[in-house]
Amino acid sequence: MNHNRFVNRRNRAGANCLVVLALVLMFYAVPLLAQNKQQTDLLEDKALQKMNIPSMPVSAPALEGPIDADKYVVGPSDVLGVNIWTSPPLSFVLSVTPEGTVIVPTVGEVKVSDLKLSVVKEKVLAEIRKKYLSGNSSVTLLSPRDIVVTVTGSVRYPGRYVVNAAQRVDKLIQEANKIVVRSQDKIVGQSVQQIEENPGYNPATSSKREIVLQRRDGTTHHVDIQEFFATKNEQRDPFLLEGDVVFVPRADDAKNLIAVYGAVNAPGRFEFVPGDSVLGAIRLAYGFTNRADPDSVVLMKMNSSTGYLTLTILKVRDLFPGSPQNLPLEPGDRILVKENFDLREDYRVYVEGEVRFPGTYPITKDKTKLTQVIREAGGFTDFASLQSAQLLRNSATIDDIQLNRMLRQRGNITPEDNAYVSVEGDILVRRFDINVNFEKLFL
Q1: What is the value of pTM for the model shown?
Q2: CB neighbour list of residue 243: distance below 8 Å, 6 or more residues apart
């Protein structure tokens, strides 16, 4: 009996010692494992730095959409991701070196600068396959690089700018025209290296259609921002590259113009560029509306000898690239696209008073009769007095009334002018009583 008690006590004491030993090991082992992990991560970071493999960028620049591998040109500081699906799989984050190469660990160095991204992918994958005969591999762009470009001419702040390689010319010009705020002799939010404002800059006369882009290799490109926005032709607003120089000329906003009016989505005046045609001008105005008359596109040209306008009637179906009807334009030409007459507008009347269903009722202009409207309103109630019934009509349109209200709210108006505008507004919104004999009409 005593022997069994002794054995049980010894077993409990041994178990307690094991628990204490486990706690001691956990107390020392957990920090030791964490310290070893930190040392391992530090060694890996140092190894990556020696291999020119930067860490993954924390934030990426804002992009207008997915980057097209067939259009994007790779250059120094682009960050690529390379994955080799072997056992175990390998994954690398690689930066293009200043010499324009990418160094793939265990594979070698590959020349990639000034090549399209799609070509770079093929070259790198071809080198990987020489080393790894089995397994799939992939190459992707993780972060586009920053580049240095120059903008001159009619911009607010000409100079050198640091922009993203996935940005187009219009973004550079927008940046060069952004107002820089000065606070306590410090420039806030400036990215241009020389911050002297161009005294001759005038946003109204800065060209938007004859911008010149000169590449580092000496080639020049014609940039037309208005055409790019209207047609999405990417050749008119290309992506920027290192060393690009953008020149924004001044435009003659009085004479070097063409105009498109009528049934187009964005009527107005546009800067003339050599090569403009009737179809191109209509595209600048964002095309025809659904009410455009397909047989009445009028081209008006000024006859320099007589001073009179000559009119040419064109048809929409004859306007296509290469068509003889797609006539070339000259400065001062104007285009008028006529509209088809359409009665489908929001014409309506208001019925108030002693009818069964007072409210708003749609009508067809010059077609709907008064008796039809009263019938739609459920007819008169037993309390209706036809002798006192009235038909009132506004003397001004809704647009005139809204314009009058805006004039009243305009700033810097004298009390005398305000009184005059109020009187004019009261005259505009005054209703006229139309002489109708309701008793004879409805009884």
Answers
A1: 0.65
A2: 148, 149, 215, 216
